[in-house]
Amino acid sequence: METRQPAVRLTDGSLYKNIFRFSLPLMFSNILQALFNMSDIAVVGRFAGPQALGSVGSTAILVTVFIGFLMGIGGGINSLVARYFGARQDEDVARSVHTSLIASLAVGLVLTALGELFCRGLLELLGTKEELIDGAELYLRIYFLGLPASALYNFGSGVFSAVGDTRKPLAFLSLAGIANVILNLIFVIAFRWDVAGVAAASALSQYLAAVLVLLSLGSAPRPVALRLRDLRPAKDKLRAVLSLGLPAGFQNAVFGIANLFIQAAVNSFDAVMVEGNSAAANADGLVYDVMAAFYVACTSFIAQNYGAGNGRRVRKSYRIALLYSFGAGALLGIALVLFGRPFLAVFTEEEAVIEAGLKRIGIMGLSYGISALMDCSIAASRGLGKTVVPTVIVILGSCVFRVAWVYTVFAAFRTIPSLYLLYCFSWIITGLAEWAYFIFTYKKAFPEVEKQ
After folding, report:
1. How many CA atoms lie within 13 A of 119 on its CB side?
2. What is the pTM of this model?
3. N or C: which end of the chain has fewer CB within 10 A?
4. Is 385 helix (H, G, I), strand (E, B) or coil?
5. In a 10 Å sphere around its CB, with 0-12 CB exposed, 13-18 middle and 19+ buried, how is residue 238 labelled?
6. Given CA atoms 171, 176, 179, 181 in this order, what sign does their dihedral have?
7. Rounded distance, CA 122 to CA 115, Å?
8. What DSSP assignment string belongs to 225-260?
């Protein structure tokens, strides 16, 4: 790969075509990441029974918090590297890459330590059912051992995406995904490890993806090449990585933290409802991850064109990415509403569990597209190097608002519809605020475009 001649050019050519071409491999990569957890739940649901299904499903929110944080770090790395690459500042690209690797590994190790220390307490805080909590804790303790590898994969994916190459991360994750499914079947069916088996399969597959992405960067040409002699942190780049990555990580984690309260509300229902919710929640990962491909494209295209000083292309990139992400969310959501029963049947044969899951899908399927305004605007602001204010907006509009909803609207009605409608309302409120902030930031960055 010649980094100055990427597979998809971000600073010239058709934006409609290039954003879609750029996003397509990312879609498949993101879906494969979702399939890691889906294959865990499908295998235990089919071969280990409803209790194992509920145990693994009860961990979904916590897994989302930790993985979301690491994906946010990767998004910050993507923004920084893309901006320098668009400005043709190769030395800054190289220093950012090496510093980002060190920072990512450190963050992954810290998250592993925190997860191992507090996973039992967090599960208890969520009100995890007594019959499910031991299995859920075992799953998390093993799964968290793979977080350093996940951090390294997201680092490498962010770097490759920043320079227009989204195919390599897809290839590496495809191999890891195949390994994950094979190991799931071996560990659960042959070895009878149940919950521990699917957790071990996920962790090992994450290390495979990490090794592949690091080896590829090691053989890449400058300026993104990894070289051991250059593997040391640069203070200015470390500050830049952390100032972009940490708020982006917290921003992603905030959604998961808010969802902890939602999971606690779900856990107030009987075990059948918890199990149905666990199966239906897999749809979220599929839809969000397809939409997220356009958010990464939005950040990458805006960051490179921001570095190149092309304000018109920045604005058009945002609009096209928003259109694509909304369309993807709306179409996939409608498909889930129409085919929710066969989708849930992948995870369980229990009719009562399927009926419980359909209650969730019926509301969420018609709401996914609305989230595009919020997430695409956040990605656009990140491309302009702004992450702190979007994080504050997310905390207020998603975390605070959702918690308030749980303790007011849901507390009054105590029904599944009254719980899941909070997503739609929080997306609308937060999305409008994030859109307004991006427009404000854009006008400050490119006042000459606005005057024309």
Report:
1. 25
2. 0.82
3. C
4. coil
5. middle
6. negative
7. 9
8. ---GGG-S--HHHHHHHHHHHHHHHHHHHHHHHHHH
CB 419 within 8 A of CB 265: yes
- Candidate from 2-6, 11-15, 337-341 with smallest mean pLDDT: 2-6
Give dist(CA 115, CA 232) in Å, integer.
Answer: 27
pLDDT tier at 52 (50, 70, 90 boundaries)? confident
Give CA–CA dist 136/119, Å, rounded.
9
Output helix, strand, coil percentages for the chain, rounded to the nearest 5.
85, 0, 15
Tokens for 368? Answer: 């996914």
The answer for residues whose C-beta is within 8 angstroms of residue 321's C-beta and 6 or more apart is 19, 294, 295, 297, 298, 301, 376, 379, 380
Amino acid in the structure at residue 66: F
Residue 335 CA neighbour count, 13 Å, CB half: 12
Nearest partner of 269 among 58, 21, 80, 45, judged by Cα:
58
Coil vs helix vs strand at 360: helix
The two tokens of residue 18 are 């290039």
Q: Do residues 32 and 202 touch, judged by C-beta distance below 8 A?
A: no
Interaxial angle between packed helices 311-338 and 416-445, expressed in degrees from 0 to 180 and rounded to the nearest 10: 170
Identity of the amino acid at 131: E
Backbone φ and ψ for 109, nearest 5 degrees, come out as -70, -40
DSSP annotation of 145: G
Q: 72 near 250, Cβ under 8 Å?
A: yes
pLDDT tens digits, residue range 103-155?
999 999 999 999 999 999 989 887 788 888 999 999 999 999 999 999 999 99
Placement of tokens 């191999």 in the chain: 175
219's CB contacts (< 8 A; 6+ apart) are 225
